[in-house]
Amino acid sequence: MGDSEALDAMREAARLSPGNFPLRRLLADALLAAGKSTEAEAAYQAALLLAPGDPEVIIGLAESFVRQGKSGAALIALESLPTEPRRPARAGIVAAMALLGNGDKAAAAAQYQQAINEDAALADADMAARLGALDTPPTVAHTPPADSQRVRVGGAGAQEDERPEEPILDAQRSHITFVDVAGMEDVKNTLRMKLLLPIQKPELFAAYGKTAGGGLMLYGPPGAGKTHLARATAGELGADFIDVGLADILDMWVGSSERNLHSIFQMARRRTPCVLFFDEVDALASRRSDMRGHSRHVINQFLAELDGVDDRANEGILVLAATNAPWYVDTAFRRPGRFGEMVFVPPPDAKARAAILEILCRGKPTTRLDMNALAAATEGFVGADLEGVLERAIETKLVDSIRAGYPLPLTTDDLLRAIRTVTPTAVREWLLTARNYVLHANESGVWDELLPWLRDVR
């Protein structure tokens, strides 16, 4: 297929999928590379309607202006680039082209030099000669992105030069909300009432003596979306999300694990409101009767941090935990004020599976998919299984697309073929394990929420 035919195919694909941002951007880039600057400008403008502020699209639009001789318009477009995190180095090259078009050679040379200082791969001998700029950039230290601030925590006990490097945590901003979580309306409503609304409507809750913050434990089969739900909780609140793993806490040095845990909570207390998330919490909060020595000290420290040094120490911190094995968690963690409520995250039903597939297919070239047929064919699948199905279907479709030279849309048959290659086992195995615990240890009624799911498990 020639370049012209490939462009025609992409134009048609974009016409059939007007809301497909990646396809719009792919078309715009291809038009720019083909020298069709005017049409590329229109394609970039259409892409910006779908993703306002996207840096690469803005830079592409500016370059299309430059190639049409609209240097002033290019510079105005580049001024709309967000300054945080750092502006892409390629923007400096396009700015240099625009400034050179305006006759400002000195400013153009400065922009070009700064760009190649940041990314030596952008160096262009012809442009450097025109500008009189150097094309051998010095080494520049890398600055981490501003939206993922890395914070050191942990550490005393031995001399600093004797200790291994301290663990590092990322406090991130989540870009997903409950809109991106299919189904689970009861779980989302519980999270809103227990964790989000006390922060969003503090005066109303204060009238009843309730403060913002607290803990909640999510449990259920692996792959059902517990971590995704925790990230969405942070996104719904617009708060920092701190994802804590075992490696961030456990340390070979005596006393250091407890210090690391304390430092993580102190970090969260400085960044309120925030969501502090402990995945696989059963490894940190196991029954103390099963533990000895150092592990018991870590569990006790965890309980102390959840309580805080005073009644308001953890105000504004939403402590979420997730586990596949809640029956291993020490009962002390389920006390009110700690993880006072345990919420079952169930396997998705047919309606939820259809919604998950719709979310997963966003931004991908597709025909009209029969979601009811796909939901019926995925009985027993969790979100992770469905994501795996889509990945298999995409990999197969990419082979065909590479042969064709343009993106081919996914069809219902593509997904059904991928479904037939996947055998989900996580849900049934988990329910069988849960049945062994729940049916013989539910005197307090803590597992009542699980009972309906266990009746037909064999």
Automatic annotation (TrEMBL):
Residue ranges, annotated region (Disordered): 136-164
GO molecular function, one term: ATP binding
Keywords noted in UniProt: ATP-binding, Nucleotide-binding
Domain AAA+ ATPase: 212-349
UniProt entry tagged with the keyword ATP-binding: yes
Domain of life of the source: Bacteria
Protein name in the entry: ATP-binding protein
Protein's organism: Rhodococcus tibetensis
